């Protein structure tokens, strides 16, 4: 037990970690990015060194912890209660292209009257929204009513010129890195569904249901369709396409080599078949196909998604389709799996879309189609508790399953610094009435469907968002 007060312990963690971070950056020739420079994957290069990434996580977790101690509790409470104010103001700025307008204005920023003259918004309202966001370092007020981007707001940029967006607003996310598309998806159907969570939980018809059609999304969209049936409607084509591009944004949030190193792809023999089950438009298979031409990749998804996939591959990697290296296959994973010779069934963020009952159905279909050597490779967020887990069987002995814990007095899971997995967990409740799972839950699900988890691989810099889980037939 330390004799120091909690704020002194936190300060000590911050001081030690800042020293480590600075030394590591000097050694690697990297640097801590400027809050006022735009985001780009290279701006986050310093995190590639696990020592620097860990130091940055500790500093952020300690700063947030300190803030929780020292900020008046009513202010902290209202930071949470007012979460929807943040969503509201960001949505208005995202959809009215404020970030792009500020990028084109350059570093001196732009008066809110001039922003409004370009995006047609009321400058009196827009200025208030921007100031609210500037309090959280999303945009910066350089002078009264003159705003510019920060590294955080720059993530909302499609990086397209105004002319291109205005000429075809429905296609504004096409061929982008997907970050704006992902945020736009969360601020539309996810945000709207969240307003109906309590109504869903208070209704005896839906409170205990595990049915995907009982998600809050159905209540707000006035439908009993699942998310995927809803997206497949012709009038929802924009949302479906935006979701597909948004999944590319999930990748852009992670180091560029994440998918390439998440599995030992090189060890697979030439012509091995990798089936990307529920692969969306194939944005994860795209870098795999480029980097590992010895693999045969089959991207499977629902028919309307495969149509979008064809459009994407015909621009991004047409030769892979022509040569047969990549096949785009319409397939419903609740029906028997047509690929009977797969080396790998790869499911990224599929199990989290379905409650146990439904997951078990498609995991059994895959088990029936597996050869004795097929590997089931899942990429999912494995959820840690917010406290230390003292039990001796917390990981069922699975190598790599135990997450790294933060030093005391920080929350064992690094708290909100590691929030992405927890965000995904609540999103799953809202859209599909499903969830992210703990390792024991995943292990149980797989055992019950004929699979055995052999290993969990984690990126050292990230404790909750998207780990690799490998399983083999029992
Ligand atoms: C969360 S997305 C993941 C996409 C992709 N694996 C990725 O990580 O980019 C879930 C995908 O499952 C697909 N899906 C939903 N139900 C399906 C079904 N019954 N059969 C095949 N794919 C399905 C959706 O269309 C969507 O593309």
TrEMBL record:
Domain of life, source organism:
Eukaryota
Where does the record place the O-methyltransferase C-terminal domain? Answer: 230-390
Q: Which molecular-function annotation in GO is an example for this chain?
A: protein dimerization activity
| Bilayer-crossing regions | none
**Which BP terms in the Gene Ontology apply to this protein?**
methylation
Q: What SUPFAM superfamilies does the record tag this protein with?
A: S-adenosyl-L-methionine-dependent methyltransferases (SSF53335), Winged helix' DNA-binding domain (SSF46785)
Q: Where is the O-methyltransferase dimerisation domain?
A: 80-156
Keyword annotations for this protein, in alphabetical order, are: Methyltransferase, S-adenosyl-L-methionine, Transferase
Per its record, how is this protein called by name?
S-adenosyl-L-methionine-dependent methyltransferase
Species name: Collybia nuda
